[in-house]
Structures are given as structure tokens and as C-alpha cells.
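TL;DR need C-alpha cells for one chain.
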Amino acid sequence: MNIREYILHLTPGGTNAFVGDSLDKDKDKIILDAYRQTCPNWPPDLFAVVASIVERSGCYTLASPDRHRLSDHVLRLKDVQEMARSWNEDPGAVPTQLAALWETMWSTHGDTELSDVCSLPALVAILLTMFAVADETCSGMGWDVDEKSALQCPFASYTMGCMSDPVEAAKLLRHLPTSFCVMVPPDLAVVLPKSLTASVGCTVRSLSHFLALLPPSTIVQPSWIWSTTERASADRSNPQLPYDVRLLLVPFPYTVDADCFELSSKRQAFGISHSLPAYFKLNQRWLQLADGPITGKRLAEELLIPLIRQAYYHSGAMPDGIVLPECALTTDLAKQLVEALEENHVHIEFLITGVLDTDPETGATYNRAQTFVLRKDEGAVKREHNKHHRWRLDASQVERYALDFDNDDDNSQWWEDIDVGNRQLSFFGLRKDMSITTLICEDLARADPAINIIRAVGPNLVIALLMDGPQLGTRWPGRYATVLADDPGSAVLSFTCSAMVDRSNWLESRPARSIGLWRDAGGRTQEIALLHGSLGVLLTLESVKKRQTTLDGRSDNEVARQLKLRNMVPLFLVKQPDWI
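>> reply
TL;DR here they are.
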């Protein structure tokens, strides 16, 4: 496929974001073809097209400055900054120099096969320049934009307006929250904001600061939501100074009985030499109390709100977010919990929890991560995604957790009986300069399909919700967390419920009651212990500025943030709920 064919493939409706939908693909074919020859006038569209060519051709490997011609590279980077500034000053017109680069690529190099791009230095220079301009023009896109910055970043400001107003989004950014593109459909390529630029390796991910190129949404459908800048502004007068992010970890449930694990399907032989594996399912009996099912109101008023008060007492500030482990709640219970927190005027920015649901019509079970972003005067915005990979229990784990749900003595493996279709992955922009995403247990250990997307977006924090034993640096979560801490440089928090930690420890003479494990890009690995009698842990994370540089030598001027663990405080309740 040549460049012109690839551009036509990626932009079936043309490249003009402001008129593309008004044209009939059959009647206005001549006009459409003319628009396809012009430079995309929406920066994320330009990024999607050029970044796709750069990645497919491999010419990102040629992006590093020529050490013998550094003065020429300096001039190119100045041109990039000038074009980006010009585009933001007049968002209605593609800069003349940028339009000329596109025209040269289309007319002079349009017939070039993608496989031949790297052999043409002039074409490589054009592609890398347009890539950088699109990236720089979108600085700040995906986060809230204050009035002072709105005039300097009109594309970022308009995008924020669309993210907060679905009616406005329908006019242009109709692919939100999956992609920030307009004319490049998400089933061909996806563009989302970016937090961290990988400092190791040589990939297209290492070439951008502000935008990330993701695979088609048919592989994994990502989404982006934003929090608020209100608390961040209140905490600090100078946005360049470090600030704290406080997480309240609630390792619920505190008790999981053996009968919560049930055999859902025995191992079955079929044909001459084939067999279906055995499957198990979870029964959330920990949500059934002696006087009936637990409610979100009761969970909030008897456990979470008292823990929040303790967190405030110890830190002098409200927690920014609350995290519960894998399968802790159901969707209905999570909704009730969030509503109860709002009714009690608990001002947090987000709540993340694992939920387990069964579809009453199909009988399919879903293991999900749900993120609730609570915006002042707007209520809660929820995003959720299913677990991507099933947990496989083996005989050693069954013995360690003291489980006995299968009378087949010859069987040694049981798969989690959940639906793993409809793969999605949610990111949310926290404050004005960070992002967070959530994985579920096994998904941290499997590279496909989520890890490469996480590496592209570079969230500052990855939270892995687990139903696992003690979180130790020597166990599997610590090993796999290191991968993301190195590339793209995310901090990783794995977090499990105290019940499974306790069940795992029954075989230990010196039990380690570690419910969480912190790993950051600075190399720090910290086990998070739940002391005897405590019901939660408050983590205080310090967000400090981080200087990043792309493969082509562009600095982000220290707008990126890196999270470090400052301290952790165990939380106790004088009056514990009688149902714990």
C-alpha cells in the first residue's frame, strides 16, 4: 500500500473536520477527493494519519537528531514550535508551512510504498515534522483548561467543552470518549491524550508528549474521562510545585468463606482425546449479612465514612480517591455506595471498585472494574470494563486457600467462569496533569491487549485490583509491575482484599499481611501492610514534576508529573461494624 492509498483508507470521509459530515459520499465525490488532498484541519486527525504512517513505515527509528548536524535539527524544532503556536493562534486555518508539507507528501511522495519510506530522507523529515506539529498543537488536550490557558490552547479548550457537554460533542467530536479524532474512524485508529513519554526503547510511543496513537477500537475500546482541577488549584498556588494525592484503600471483604468458591462446570471429555476444562464461579456470600443483603448506605455509613474521617484526622485533608479490590461489590451496590457518599456530602474525586455481576437473561458472569468520577454539581460519571483474562486456579492455589469445591481428584486446574468479550479500557484525567487506569488481576500479567495501550497513553498510575494472596515484591504482581514502571514509567499499585491474604497465610508460620504493593519508576518497591485490627490504609502520594524528552529531542518543559509514595497510615475504627 502506498501513502496516498493509506491516507484514503484512514479518512473515508475526507480530511476536513468541519464539513466532512455535510457531504454525500456519492454526490460530492469530487469535493471529497479534493478535501482528502488537503492537510487535516483537526490536529488529532493529522496525528492519527501521520503517526500511522510513521509507525507502519518504521521511520520513527530515524527521528533522533543527527549529531553532526545539530544546528539543522534546532531549526527544525523551532519551525515545529512556530507552526504549533500559529495553529493555536488561528485554529480555523492550517499554518501555510504545514499545509505545504502535506501537499508535498501527497503530490510528490503519494505513490511511495510504506515499505520504502525509510529510504527517502526528505519524506521522513516531512512526516516527522508534521507528527511533531500535531503533537505540540495538542498540549493540554484531555484535561481541564482554565480561562488563562484557553486562548493559548483553543483546541484543548474546545475539546474540554465537548467532553463536558454531549450536545457540543455531537457537533464535532462524535467519537468521544473513545477517540479525539473527527475524520479518522476509531475502527481504523484511535487517538487519546498522553501523560508519560517512555524514556527507554525506540518506538512511536517515544516520539510524542501529548497524544497517543492506539490500535483500532475493535481490538480494545478505550475511553477517556476527566476529573476536576478544583482541589488541585485549592491545594497549591504554584502549579509547578509538588502536591499530594491521597488514596484510601479499603480491603473489603474481610472474610471470604470457602463456600464462596463453587464448581460451575466439571471437566468433561469429548471426542477421542479432547476435554473441556473445569470452571469455577464466585458466590459473593460476604455481601449477605445475618439481617439481609448489605446496602450501599450501610457500607458507606458504617465503614467508608468512618474510615474517611480517620483519614482526615491523620492527614488534615480529605482522601482524593477510594479504592476497593476485585469483585468486592456488585454494580447495584457500587451505585448505592456512591449515592450514599454523595448524600452524606463526602467530597472525593473518584471511587474505583471491582464488581461481579451476572446477567439474569443469559446467565453470563462479568468481572468488572468500575470507576466513578465525582464532579461538583454534576454527580457521578461511571466508566467500566470487563476483565480481559480468566483466572486459572491450580491445585497449589486451591490448597493454599483451603478450598474444596471439586470431587474430581484427578483434576488440577479450574478456570474462572466469566465472559471476557467486549474488551474495553478506561482512562481518566486526574486534576490537570495526570491520568489513572485500572486493570483486573490477571490482566496485569498478560501483555495483550491492554498493556500496549497503557504504554501508549502512559498513565501516571495503574491500579491493579486483585483477589489474591499477600502482595510481596517477590510474587507475580511485583514482577509485572516492573514492566510498566520501566515503560512508560507509570507507578503501579496492586491491591487485594484482606480475606484472601488471610486465607493464604494460614499455611505460613510468619504470615505477611500485605494487602498492596507499590512500585514506581524511581525503583521503589513498597509492601503495604494491613496491621492487626486496622480496616484500611491511607496512602499519600507526592506528585512531582518530571522532565521528558522525545526521540527527536523535544522537551515537555516539565509539565509531566511522576508519582512517588510519601507515606502510608493504617486506619482503625473504635467501633467496628459487627458484620466484618
